[in-house]
Amino acid sequence: MPRSVNSVASRARRKKILKQAKGYFGRRKNVWTIAKNAVEKAMQYSYRDRRVKKRNFRALWIARINAGARLNGMSYSQFMGKVKENHIDLNRKVLADLAMNHPDAFKAIVDKIK
What we know:
Elements: H1 7-20, H2 32-71, H3 76-85, H4 92-101, H5 103-113
Helix pairs in contact: 1-2, 2-4, 4-5
């Protein structure tokens, strides 16, 4: 009995990886073993960086809130402590947006908690 190899599935699997490697430089886009390694590494980076992105945004929001708070005579930690104390349920994303784009509204919050 002849040996059975599923070349249809093997080819489909390779085509899928090579399609993901589209746009890569040099042999990374068209040589199977190199493309496979490059795509696997790229997937690891994308998985990791979906989590890192959240950290980076939180750091950005904190920097913006701190800048807005200091313009109004408070530090970030004092400001956030008073916000929690006064039961103002605005998250850092919203507070950072107010500090950047609506400084008058941010100042109203600062005046309310002082």
